[in-house]
Amino acid sequence: MEEAEVPLEHLHEHVHESAEHSREIWISWVALSTAVLAVLAAIAGLLSGKHANEAMMSQIQASDQWSYYQAKSIKAAVLDAKMSLANAADEKDRAKAAKYEEEQAEIKSEAEHKEIEAKTNFHKHEVLARGVTLFQIAIAIAAISALTRKRRFWIVSLLFGLVGCVFLVLGMIAR
């Protein structure tokens, strides 16, 4: 899966340039807040990508376990057919059949565990990706604030950034 990118770096640079050439002090705060938002977006993007990769790896491992489970099932079925055709099943075959059954239970448990792990990581990825999106929106609105010299846009930007922080925290603590 692709990592989330923050394509708003040019806006961030423009806000800093505006802050340098402006006589209004609050524009400097806009520049500082966009820098913080950009860092948070980068962190959320990296974590989102990490969890997407972990989800994919866990799903692959679960699929491998299910294939292994199926192979054991086939071996058990062949052995069962052999025992059915033989008039007297030998003790060695019975022990082998019991071993296959035990192994299948372990393999199934591991496959189910990996599936749950994959779902958990994918959920974290989705939550963090929402955070990245909100941080990007916040940076864009901050740039609009600097361009139009209107504080209300900066306040809206900070609100989007705050909601992005909520998603970042939720993505980090989600189970």
Describe the secondary structure blueprint for this structure.
Layout: H1 9-21, H2 25-85, H3 91-148, H4 151-173
Defining traits:
175 residues; mainly alpha; rod-shaped
Q: Can you put this structure into words, describing what you see?
A:
With 175 residues, this protein is an all-alpha fold. Helix content is 89%, strand content 0%. The chain is rod-shaped. It starts with 8 loop residues before the first helix and ends with a helix.
| Total number of strands | 0
Largest sheet: none
Shape: rod-shaped
Uncertain residue segments? none
The chain-level structural class is mainly alpha
| Relative strand content | under 5%
Kindly state the percentage of residues in helix: over 70%
Given the structure, what is the number of helices?
4
Order of helices and strands: HHHH
Specify Rg, calculated over alpha carbons.
28 Å
Measured between the Cα atoms of the first and last residue, the distance is 20 Å
Short description:
The protein is 89% helix and 0% strand. It has four helices and no strands. It has helices at residues 9-21, 25-85, 91-148, 151-173.
